[in-house]
């Protein structure tokens, strides 16, 4: 692999630089967000600005990542390791493939298990709707859409305004959050609408 080229591309949806692994919770969160997305890669021994420092103890880094993947991620993950030398410095490359068993949960510092997804170069907490979409898309049950007045009203609204949040959808139809979430999950699963997560908000657009 061309390490330098990868580093020049910079951190993003599927690439993260780590100087060293200091916390199983933090690294589990990143790995889980990769598995729940399209997969991703960690470069251990690389600073945030792309400087290659190399790892001091490759065994220690491997141990932390394996521990995080097995005990801080549920279902457990199987990272793929590769060693790459650059100017006599060792960079540990860790690949996390996209999972077939979505959603994966990471054990947080508060002792709870949460689902994370990848947004740009950050691992962000997934909303209930995204968790449900991950669950159902993994089980491939297929969703039968019945276009009731709710779905029609939503699509007409998106035709005019381009985007909507859960709160706006509840207000638009005067329905409760749980009911609104069910409608949105089904429409996302069938590809009628798209869910967009940013660090600050989540909204929906027509596909």
From TrEMBL:
It comes from the Bacteria. Keywords: ATP-binding, Nucleotide-binding. GO terms for molecular function: ATP binding. The keyword Transcription regulation does not apply. InterPro entries: Schlafen_AlbA_2_dom (IPR007421), Schlafen_AlbA_2_dom_sf (IPR038461). Residues 11-125 form the Schlafen AlbA-2 domain. This is ATP-binding protein.
């Amino acid at each position: 692999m061309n390490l330098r080229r990868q580093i020049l591309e910079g951190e993003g949806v599927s690439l993260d630089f780590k100087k060293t692994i200091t916390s199983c919770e933090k690294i589990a969160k990143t790995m889980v967000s990769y598995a729940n997305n399209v997969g991703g890669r960690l470069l251990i021994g690389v600073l945030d600005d792309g400087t290659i420092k190399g790892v001091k103890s490759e065994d220690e880094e491997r141990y932390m990542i394996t521990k995080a993947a097995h005990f801080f991620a549920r279902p457990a993950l199987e990272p793929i390791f590769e060693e790459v030398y650059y100017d006599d410095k060792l960079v540990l490359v860790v690949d996390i493939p996209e999972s077939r068993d979505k959603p994966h949960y990471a054990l947080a510092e508060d002792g709870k298990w949460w689902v994370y997804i990848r947004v740009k170069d950050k691992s962000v907490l997934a909303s209930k709707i995204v968790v449900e979409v991950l669950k159902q898309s993994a089980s491939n049950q297929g969703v039968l859409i019945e276009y009731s007045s709710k779905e029609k009203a939503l699509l007409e609204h998106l035709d005019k305004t381009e985007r909507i949040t859960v709160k706006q959808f509840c207000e638009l139809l005067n329905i409760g959050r749980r009911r609104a979430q069910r409608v949105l999950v089904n429409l996302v699963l069938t590809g009628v609408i798209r869910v967009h997560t940013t660090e600050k908000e989540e909204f929906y657009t027509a596909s």
